């Protein structure tokens, strides 16, 4: 089985409070984009989880793909069944676009079928939440208005715009952003209708810009071309466009020191579309 593992954008990110355990309460709208990693799954009979290639600086047991597969071991129908997972990495790490969470969710979805675990999407999402707050939305596979730490999801269908996605040459440390004493933590909650019609802002933007001069430089450049926004805790920035041509035009002027992509918004995850096609081809229930 080969599946795409898409990135996501936070169309806005409001931090509405902080819990006693240190986690932040937030509101956001998640939308997938058609920029994807690819994961290939090959069943084995050695009971083991193999992942290739190695990711620089990430031990196998710390890899979210490995952790996701490990979570499903006890649900396998055949205890002898293992898997070799090959990752074709395209999504930049530390960009706030959820690559690691997406890889974990894609692994849960794939192995649920290949290992015949027979778990429901909500069950897989609960398992995914143990791996990271962004994993459930990738498991469920629909664009969502999210609350809590990002796990309480209500399906929404924002405009499927074209986006110019920009990645400065830096890696943003999420912990540094969420522990900054100047981070806004009391943005008033909004309703879904407000979020979809009027949008919102990203409470992390100013803190990310303060700690990361590269993001600040990219933001100042990008905002000359439209409503520049930060996704997640960065480092990626984006602008929505009504058509692909306008996005491509701005992309051609992006300084070569930054990575840039033109992407299409998706309200259904490309992972789910591909998985449903695989299920039809293999006549799986």
Summarize the structure.
By secondary structure, this protein is α+β, with helices and mostly antiparallel strands. The chain has helices at 64-71, 99-114, 121-129, 135-140, 174-178, 192-198, 205-211, 213-222, 244-251, 270-281, and strands at residues 2-18, 24-44, 49-52, 82-88, 144-147, 152-155, 162-167, 229-230, 237-241, 259-266.
What does this structure look like?
By secondary structure, the chain is of the alpha+beta class. It has 2 domains: 2-157 and 269-281, Ribosomal Protein S5, domain 2 (2-Layer Sandwich), CATH 3.30.230.10; 162-266, 2-Layer Sandwich (Alpha-Beta Plaits). It is 31% helix and 27% strand. The protein is built from 10 helices and 10 strands. It has helices at 64-71, 99-114, 121-129, 135-140, 174-178, 192-198, 205-211, 213-222, 244-251, 270-281; strands at 2-18, 24-44, 49-52, 82-88, 144-147, 152-155, 162-167, 229-230, 237-241, 259-266. Strands 1, 2, 3, 4, 5, 6, 7, 8, 9 and 10 form a 10-stranded mixed sheet that branches. Helix 1 packs parallel to helix 2 (99-114), helix 2 (99-114) packs across helix 3 and helix 7 (205-211) packs across helix 8. The mean pLDDT is 94.
Distance linking N and C termini: 16 Å
Our estimate of the beta-strand percent is 25-35%
Q: How large, in whole angstroms, is the Cα Rg? A: 19 Å
Q: Low-confidence parts, pLDDT < 50 over ≥5 residues?
A: none
Mean pLDDT: 94
What is the β-strand count? Answer: 10
CATH architectural grouping of the largest domain: 2-Layer Sandwich
Large-scale geometry = globular
Class based on secondary structure composition and strand pairing: alpha+beta
CATH topology of the largest domain: Ribosomal Protein S5, domain 2
CATH C-level of the largest domain: Alpha Beta
Order of helices and strands: EEEHEHHHEEEHHHHEEHEH
Total number of helices = 10
Q: Please give the domain count.
A: 2
Q: Main sheet, how many strands, which sense, barrel?
A: 10 strands, mixed
